[in-house]
Design goal:
Layout (H helix, E strand, L loop, with lengths): L11 E4 L6 H31 L6 H27 L5 E4 H34 L4 H4 L2 H27 L8 E2 L6 H7 L5 H32 L5 H29 L8 H23 L2 H15 L1
Parallel strand pairs: 1-3
Antiparallel strand pairs: 1-2
Helix pairs in contact: 1-2, 1-9, 1-10, 2-3, 2-9, 3-5, 3-7, 3-8, 7-8, 8-9
């Protein structure tokens, strides 16, 4: 059976969505549409600002560019369907589209994990080894880390798809979700796939937990090293580090909640998935512009040049 061959002739799934309340659906449609437009424009603005500004050439901004690109792509893949489905009482998604959605979500999520790790390493070197920063964080190393990020994303997503196509369905095709999710599919599968779910939880949840704890250790090391800095140096370091910590928590929190647990679905899964797919890509550009003076100044300069 090919990867895109529907299991047991299941060609589509019915999505129950976020709510069955018609009035609330209309409100959410407007809210999600505005969030989508803002998210895409804000992330693309950051990509353009950093790419065109000669003052934002540090490795940190190189990684922020890729993070914004990932967020803009993720929201462009997931949010439009979530938003348009709010206009219909019966929401469906084909088997092929379901696989594509799962692949893209895990591809971009797997890549973002490495990008956030690379950003953490960049800040560690900048604060703990400032004299060797330019030697260590060379352009070649930054590009290599991004290649690793994209390869890791592809491998992770491929494994997730292989797990998904191994499921079989005997009739029920209603998913209590607003998008395709492995555990939701596992719940309606007629196969006893408990151990398959455990493997998926270990694969994705275990990786999230491992890297999250590694990042926590790096934060502790950095905080310890800040004792030797003056008050101004500590303030700047804590400011940039605070932005990264916020983004890390927003990313790894939903990942750990969804995958690092027993194979079972909860009512809160929809909200957590919505937070990851819709809200986090919107919040990331806000965090990195509001708390980063250099990015704000470069953005103002670029907008002034475009106006004049």
């Amino acid at each position: 059976m090919g990867l895109l061959t529907p299991p047991n002739n299941v060609t589509e799934f019915v999505l129950l969505g976020l709510t069955q309340n018609p009035h609330l659906q209309k409100i959410l449609f407007v809210v999600f549409l505005l969030i989508f437009l803002f998210t895409v424009l804000a992330n693309l603005l950051i990509v353009m600002t950093i790419s065109l500004s000669p003052t934002l050439s540090a490795p940190m901004y190189f990684f922020i560019t890729h993070l914004s690109f990932i967020d803009a792509t993720l929201t462009s893949i997931t949010t439009p369907k979530i938003t348009l489905d709010l206009l219909y009482q019966r929401r469906t998604i084909s088997w092929d589209s379901c696989l594509t959605q799962i692949f893209v979500e895990h591809f971009l999520g797997g890549s973002e994990i490495i990008v956030l790790t690379a950003m953490a390493y960049d800040r560690y070197v900048a604060i703990c080894k400032p004299l060797h920063y330019t030697t260590i964080m060379r352009q070649g190393l930054c590009q290599l880390l991004m290649v690793v990020a994209w390869i890791r994303g592809i491998l992770h997503a491929t494994v997730q798809i292989l797990f998904t196509v191994d499921l079989t369905f005997c009739g029920p095709n209603v998913i209590d979700h607003f998008m395709c999710d492995f555990f939701s599919l596992l719940e309606i599968s007629c196969r006893d796939a408990y151990w398959l779910g455990v493997v998926v939880a270990a694969n994705t949840g275990g990786m999230c937990l491992l890297i999250f704890f590694m990042l926590l250790i790096s934060y502790i090391v950095i905080l310890s090293s800040l004792k030797s800095h003056d008050s101004e140096g500590r303030r700047k370091a804590l400011s940039t580090r605070g932005s990264h910590v916020t983004v890390v928590v927003l990313f790894f929190g939903p990942c750990i909640f969804t995958y690092a647990r027993p194979v079972v679905t909860y009512p809160a899964d929809k909200f957590v998935a919505m937070f990851f797919a819709v809200l986090t890509p919107m919040l990331n550009p806000i965090i990195y512009t509001v708390r980063n003076t250099a990015v704000k100044n470069a953005m103002r300069s670029m907008l002034k040049r475009r106006v004049t």
